[in-house]
Amino acid sequence: MAQYDLTNALSEFMDLHLVFPLLEFLSTREIYKSESLMKSKYQLLQNTNMVDFTIDVFHGLHPDEEPPEALHEKRSDVVRQLTELQEKSSQVIEMFSRKDVSDVVEKHRDSQQLWDYLSETHNFDRERLDDVFHYGKFMYDVGNYAIASTNLDFYRNLAPADSKYYSSAQWGKLASEILQQNWDEAMEELERLKDNISAALHLTYSEVLVQRAWLIHWGLFVYFNHPQGRDSIIDVFLHQKPYLNAVQTMCPHILRYITTAVVISKRRRDGIKELIKVLQQESYKDPITEFVESLYVNFNFDEAQAKLKECKTVIENDFFIVGCLDEFTENARLIISEIFCRIHQRIEIDMLADNLNMEPAEAEKWVVNMIRLAHLDAKIDSKNGYVVMGGTSVPVYQKLIDKTKDLHLKANSCCQKIDKKLTLGI
CB within 10 Å: which end of the chain, N or C, has fewer? Predict the structure, then answer.
């Protein structure tokens, strides 16, 4: 099963703090030895300021040994730095707690106007603003994501976009919301960061590609937890060419999550053709992508059934899609039966029941529901145990919908290109 574990591939595009939830999840599975996971966690913690957590993991690895003296020294150093940063940032916090200042902050939404007011009236300078960033980053490093989020948000909203720490504050803010599981706020931050990456004219093509690859991986936390997130995976990763290019160039393993999103989406028809095209171009394979190919490319139902069983194991051991197992299984069965019915004129319900691993009575109810959901021209002959298919011609209105379904995405893409050219004065 370890052959399908993507933790190593995913962690290359993630901040260390985002990797810990993945390791915690793996510790509840039986893919790797517990000691091996503890060692990995301990190694990652060496690069953070979460010293108490590091000591706890050390005790888990070596219950009869005392932690190294270096850890105690690091803890003292962390406490000292924290005290210094708190003293510096407390002056800023105290200033903004004053009513006259908070009223002005509420009134001036423009960062430059607010900056002019603070610098002229309260001698607020770049050094003090940088203190806010350093304090927020330090709190993030020690695992206090709530305080980190507040300070990084303050810095980002006040600092100019070309400031030294602006980009770091953006990514730190997103990570803080993810680690607090504030999915609405995280979705807003994700969209904001996506827009800023597109508008970052100072970045090279390679740098933009890398940033998009990072955003794709961080976005998995948000998209698979936010109520509207799964459709966003299709809209962004599959339908927006810059992000699809990043997937194909930097991280083809993300096709697992795109495929899962398409299978469980109510808008499956919007993405399946494009997905099939992409899957046939890429060498990345796993049971989830192979399940879709076996149905839509090979029309091999025996292979699809075998791959669906493997999908269950893959999904159960994947941090991001483990919660999609029942939904994936239900929709996968629907796809199998729908395609099977579309390519046959008459189907025995008993044979269909065998393909779906169901009892005949249960399979008959399933087919009734499938015909309704898929808008198939079919009827059930319960007396003889058959499903009889009608004509397979596509209605004119459906053809029109298929032709125009991606029109809004193409229009948005054109608008973005026009805006960019106007900005550059082309």
Answer: C
Backbone φ, ψ for residue 389 (5° rounding)? -90, 145
Going by C-alpha positions, the residue among 230, 222, 244, 113 that lies closest to residue 178 is 222
What are the φ/ψ torsions at residue 347 (nearest 5 degrees)?
-125, 130
Question: Residue 96 pLDDT > 60, yes or no?
Answer: yes
Percent of the residues in the chain that have a pLDDT greater than 70, as a whole number: 85
Structure tokens at 160: 């100019």
- Please count the other Cβ atoms lying within 10 Å of the Cβ belonging to residue 413: 15
Least confident of 138-152, 368-382, 395-409: 395-409
State the Cα–Cα distance between residues 13 and 16, nearest whole angstrom. 10
* Rounded Cα gap, residues 351 and 292, in angstroms: 21
Note the pLDDT tens digit of each residue in 272-324.
989 999 999 999 999 999 999 999 998 888 899 899 999 999 999 999 999 99
Q: pTM of this prediction?
A: 0.82
Residue type, position 41, single letter: K
* 3-state secondary structure at position 239: coil
- Opening angle at CA 64, ends 59 and 68, nearest 5: 60
- Give me the helix-helix angle, 241-250 and 205-223, nearest 10°: 100
Half-sphere exposure of 164 (CA within 13 A, CB side): 7
Q: Cα 80 to chain center, whole Å?
A: 36
Q: Which residues contact 34 (CB under 8 A, 6 or more apart)?
A: 27
Q: Are 263 and 331 in contact (CB under 8 A)?
A: yes
Q: Alpha-carbon distance 16 to 10, whole Å?
A: 11
Q: For residue 245, what pLDDT band results from cuts at 50, 70 and 90?
A: very high
